[in-house]
Every structure is written in C-alpha cells, then in structure tokens.
Amino acid sequence: MNLSAGYQPADSLISELSLARSLLEAQNLSGILPVGVGYLGWLLDKMPFQEAESLLIAALTANVQAFWFSFGSDLGKWIRYVRENSSGKSPLIFVQVNSLEEAVYAVENLEADIIVAQGIESGGHGGSYAPPLFDLLQSILEHPFGSSPRPVVLAAGGLANGADIALQLTLGAAGVVMGTRFLLSPESKYTDAQREALIAANTEDTVRTVAFDQARGTIDWPEGIDGRGLRNGEFLTRDPYFTFLLEGADPCSLSFTAQSGSNSEKLNSLMALDTVSDFEQGVSLELIQSKFKEGTRTQDRRRFLVWAGTGVGLMNRIMPAKDVVQELHQECQQHLAKLS
Ligand SMILES: Cc1cc2nc3c(=O)[nH]c(=O)nc-3n(C[C@H](O)[C@H](O)[C@H](O)COP(=O)(O)O)c2cc1C
Description:
By secondary structure, this protein is of the alpha/beta class. The chain is 45% helix and 15% strand. The chain contains 16 helices and ten strands. It is globular. The structure holds flavin mononucleotide.
C-alpha cells in the first residue's frame, strides 16, 4: 500500500499516516508502519527546502516501511536525506523508472532497493518515452549491472488481472504495481461518476497527453512526462450523428459527405467536445481550464479527469480493495499452475 505525498501539505500527510496506523493496528505492528509514501522528485525540488523536509520527516517519524521516488532529476538528494535521517534500519527505497538508462542510474548511483519498471501502458503520469512494459522489464532484467547487486524489479503498467500478474512473474519480475485497478475500489477517492467512467471504458479509450495537466493547471511536470487517462467525451464523439442530435440540431440538415461549409464546421466544433480534443485543436487554455473546472464541479464525463492505464477495458466491477487483492492472488495462482 502506498500513500502519496504528491501535492498535499505535511499536515494532511501526517493525518493520513496516523489513520493508516490506526487501521493497521490490529496487525500488532512492531513499530514499523507497513506502508510506503510516494514523492514526486521534481515537486520536492521546486518547493522551499523546509517544506520538502517536513514531508519527508512526516513519513520518517511515522516509521514507514518504504519511500517511493519518481519523476525527478535529483532523486539522490532526497534519498540521501531519508537514509541519513532514519533512526535504525533505513526504510526500503523504491525508484520508479521509464527506461533502461533510468534503471541503471537508480541501481548504480541511487542504490535503490527496488526498481519499478513503468511501461508506456501505465495509468497516471509516466514518461512519454517509456517502452512497452514487456520490453522495458526484459531490458532491465537482462542488464548486467556491473558490480552492483542485481535489483529487485517490479512491473507496472496496464495490468488488470491475475493473468497479467502471472505473465510478469514468468518474465522474471519480483512482483507488480497496479494503480488503475484500485481506482475502482470504494476505498479510492474517485467519485462514483469517475468509477462508472472506468467501468464503461474500453481498452482503446485511454490516451497519453499533457492536456489534463494543462486543464487542471498542474503544468510544471518535467519535459517528457505526460499522463494516461480516459479520453473524456470520446464516447460521444465516436458517433457524430449522435453528437449532433444531442446538441438539439435537426439531423436532416447534416450532410456527412460535406468537406467544407457550415455542416463540416459545425461537425468540427461538436467533435471538440472534450478536454483532449480542445487541447489538440488549439482551443485557448483559459477556455479549456474553465470548462474543466465546471465539468469537474458538475461531474460531466466529457470534462472531468479520470487517470487510467490501458488495462481499463478488462476492469468492470467495483470491489473492495481487499477483495481485489484476494481475487488477483487466486487468478495468478491458477494461471501459474497451468504452466507447471
Ligand atoms: C491515479 C493515479 C495516481 C498515480 N500517482 C502516482 C504518483 O504520485 N507517483 C508515481 O510515481 N506514480 C503514480 N502513478 C503511477 C503508478 O505508480 C503506476 O505506475 C501505474 O498506476 C501503473 O499502471 P496502471 O495504472 O495501468 O496499473 C499513479 C497512477 C494512477 C492511476
């Protein structure tokens, strides 16, 4: 389980950590809190040092089992801080990577305990340059890594079910990381409307883009990092006739063969119904942001943001996180048993 320090202030991270401790207390914790906390390297770099420090101290004080770092050009600075300031045994350091080069750096320079190989299929933020998980994982597993100990490698990106997990284990991953699948749990902070959008989505409905960050104003992500989410509104724009009717127009007036003129202009404007289409067609940022804000307020599927990996088409049920883990475990065992 991973909490995100992301955009939240230290106070709210402290509350989340104390909630985690009280929920897990039944497990007779021996001091260590069995959760990880994720940090965005570039965001730590950007904030005043004391603010970044207080986010790290929050997790160090809570005695968390693991720290997770991603998306930064100076992760070493923050990893050193954690190692030098942890009392007793250093927490495990996870580093998420999008290329073999980043993996080599994380192993040889950052001495990461665990490498998370995040393929291009991943939901949420990731490197736009990442190879498919299949290739990224194998390139890391096959790399010699000189005198450094071989890393423990986890696979992330587009994984939906136990068959996917069994495949990654068979390839040599030590385990997997899944994000999107847990967005469908009641425990996630997604709204019912966002969860319904995930259930309705097909495999081809996700897109990698910076449009969502532009729309919500989180625009400082490093060069080369974008995010995969549902191409909101696509379910309407797939069918121009349906779209036209929705707008209350007279369908008889629409000629679908028109190459120019008012009908095709009208059609073009109707096709620009969602954040990504607006962004791609050069609609002003101000307008995109105001439509996004309003769409998020009204939970308009064409405008709100739903991060999702390519595995979303195989996810069609809302289940408590505990049941998801149990189901994944069972499915994975069944698939592995078929191989033996
Ligand atoms: C809603 C959401 C938020 C995420 N936030 C972070 C984050 O803060 N830091 C990070 O390193 N990765 C983040 N990720 C990426 C995950 O670590 C993981 O690589 C990804 O979810 C795997 O792909 P999947 O969603 O297809 O399972 C996020 C993913 C999602 C879906």
